[in-house]
Structure formats: structure tokens, C-alpha cells
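Whiteboard transcription, Tuesday session. T.W. wrote the C-alpha cells on the left side:
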């Protein structure tokens, strides 16, 4: 460490995107390197300097690893650190809303330290009597996504039938529990026996099935929903969405959160049953959690008591060290993770 005047320079390990990805991503599409960073924020800046503690691995990041000119969902910059959601500690600040020592979660770099010249989507952590890693998921982006996707987009009513694909993931496991709290009948699908058991025995789903063991998804859904589906929380897309459309009830609602089955395909699959949306009067709505950030602290107030009382269950899959981050991210797309995938950079 070099310390002199307005400089305190330290080494900074980083995960860099090597090249834009087509097809299934590989660990070698990223590499770990070490640079240096000044831990002091310039006096004429409005920025903050963060020490990153926990990083969140999320499926949407795959879309940013490919080249795109889409302004609403920009590609990562080659040769620069990957960015995503994480939990951090403020090391230095020239921003009026943040001070040294504050714990925050929000958008940050996949590196040991990140300088944000204009902090955006950075939330102070209101409660530290739960694990800090929860703010990468349960009390962070994934939890808010599950909550608003179910309640704001789908407006569940007691007694309705709810289906969740990729249900053991960071978002799905919470959607199911929120739906049960609303008095709904809940079924989820996942890709292994272990995950199916989690859904039924830990998260309290009424039923669950392994989609990999089903040759006919339409028949499987009819088996679990003989009267049809009122709410579908969409995380998968493709053949799953096509089968769900055949089984939606009149005035059903579909919250489109993600389509992980399509992210690694050079030519996405078509959906052939869209006509059912018309005569069943189904509402299919995509949404982005960023639009709901103003509701964040209201969401925390709503769920934190249940978390502290153990009414909401949560499973994390922890990878230790920044060097493990590329493998952890790639593992999402083969279903290797069980629960929310978190990378520990430094334990506070």
C-alpha cells in the first residue's frame, strides 16, 4: 500500500470480460487480473469508494455478455470489470448521502474495490441483524423482484393457482413463499430431485416436479393444475411458456421475469400458443425491478419481520473468493447452483 497526501493506493483484483459471448458462456470468456486503485475519492468529486464484500450472480448478466446496441440493456465493456449487484462498505465518500463505514447494496464492479463517480441504485443497508449476504438476494434485487412481480404485476387472490418455473432459484423460492402467504395453491418446477425436495419440504410449495423427467410439459401441467393456472411467474421461456399458455385460466396473469432457457441460444425458440392469450383474456407483462426501486424500503418493512421470525426460508449457494466468480456465474446456466448464487469477496 502506498499512502501519501491524497492518495492511498492498493492492489485491486478484478474479473474482466475477455470477449463478447455467443452460445453457451465459458469461464475463459472472463479472466481475473490485478490492477491498482486509489482509495481516496477526489475532493471535487461526488463519488464513493466501495470495498466489495459479496457479489450476486444473476441470469440477466448473460445478456450483457453479448454484443448489443440496445440502449436499455447495454453490453459490458470489453477489458473492464463485469458489473452487477453486490454488498459493499463505503471506504471513502464525497457524496452527501453516504459516509465512511456505511454498508450498502447496489450496482458495483466485480472487483475488490470500486469507485463510483455518480452513485446510482445504491441503497443503505437498514438492518445488520440478518446476514449481510441476504442483501444480494432476499433483501436485495431478487427479493424485490419476487415481491413486486407477484403482488404488483399479478395481484394474487386467495385460492388462486400459481405456477413458478425455475422455482428453486433466488427469485422463484421467494415468489412461492409470498404466494403461499397470500393464500394461493403453489406448484414449482426445478431441474433435480434435490431442488424439488427443497421446494416441497423447505419452502412450503404444495407440489413440485422435475421438468427434466417430463416428456410432455403440457401433460405435466394438467396433472398438477387440472383446473388451470391463474398466475404464472415466468423465469424460463421457450417450451415451458408454450405449455403454460395451453393451461392458463380465463383472466390469468403472467409476470415475465426472465427466460433463462433462451439466453444461450443463437436463435431463440418460437412460441406457438400465443392465441390462447386472446380468448382466455390473459395478461402477459414483462417487468424490470429497476422501475420499482422507489418501493424498496416499503418492501423491507413488509418482509423483514417474517424473515426474523423464520417464516421466510432462504437458501444460498456460496462461492469463496473473487477467483471463483466466473465458475459461479457460468454454473447458473447448467443449474449447478442450489438457491441464490453468491460470491464472497471479503467477509466483514
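and on the right, the sequence the group agreed on:
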Amino acid at each position: 500500500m502506498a499512502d501519501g497526501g491524497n492518495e492511498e493506493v492498493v492492489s485491486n483484483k478484478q474479473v474482466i470480460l475477455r470477449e463478447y459471448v455467443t452460445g453457451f458462456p465459458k469461464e475463459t470468456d472472463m479472466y481475473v487480473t490485478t490492477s491498482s486503485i486509489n482509495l481516496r475519492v477526489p475532493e471535487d468529486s461526488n463519488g464513493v469508494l466501495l470495498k466489495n464484500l459479496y457479489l450476486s450472480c444473476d441470469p440477466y448478466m448473460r445478456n450483457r455478455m453479448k454484443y448489443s446496441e440496445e440502449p436499455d440493456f447495454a453490453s459490458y465493456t470489453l477489458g473492464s470489470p463485469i458489473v452487477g449487484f453486490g454488498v459493499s462498505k463505503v471506504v471513502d465518500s464525497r457524496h452527501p448521502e453516504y459516509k465512511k463505514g456505511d454498508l450498502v447494496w447496489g450496482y458495483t464492479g466485480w472487483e475488490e474495490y470500486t469507485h463510483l463517480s455518480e452513485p446510482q441504485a445504491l441503497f443503505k443497508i437498514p438492518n445488520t441483524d440478518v446476514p449481510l449476504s441476504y442483501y444480494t438476494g432476499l433483501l436485495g434485487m431478487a427479493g424485490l423482484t419476487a415481491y413486486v412481480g407477484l403482488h404488483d404485476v399479478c395481484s394474487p387472490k386467495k385460492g388462486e393457482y400459481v405456477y413458478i418455473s425455475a422455482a428453486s432459484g433466488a427469485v422463484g423460492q421467494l415468489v412461492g413463499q409470498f404466494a403461499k402467504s397470500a393464500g394461493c395453491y403453489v406448484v414449482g418446477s426445478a431441474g433435480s430431485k434435490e431442488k424439488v425436495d427443497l421446494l416441497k419440504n423447505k419452502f412450503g410449495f404444495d407440489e413440485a416436479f422435475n421438468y427434466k423427467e417430463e416428456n410432455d410439459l403440457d401433460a405435466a401441467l394438467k396433472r398438477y393444475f387440472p383446473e388451470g393456472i391463474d398466475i404464472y411467474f415466468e423465469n424460463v421461456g421457450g417450451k415451458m411458456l408454450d405449455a403454460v399458455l395451453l393451461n392458463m385460466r380465463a383472466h390469468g396473469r403472467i409476470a415475465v421475469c426472465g427466460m433463462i432457457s433462451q439466453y444461450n441460444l443463437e436463435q431463440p425458440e418460437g412460441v406457438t400458443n400465443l392465441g390462447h392469450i386472446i380468448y382466455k383474456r390473459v395478461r402477459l407483462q414483462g417487468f424490470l425491478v429497476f422501475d420499482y426501486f422507489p418501493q424498496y424500503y416499503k418492501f423491507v418493512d413488509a418482509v423483514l419481520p417474517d424473515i426474523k421470525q423464520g417464516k421466510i426460508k432462504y437458501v444460498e449457494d456460496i462461492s469463496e473468493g473473487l477467483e471463483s466468480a466466473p465458475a459461479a456465474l457460468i454454473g447458473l446456466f447448467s443449474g449447478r447452483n442450489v438457491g441464490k448464487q453468491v460470491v464472497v469477496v471479503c467477509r466483514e
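Someone added at the bottom: The CA atoms of residues 57 and 329 lie 5 Å apart.
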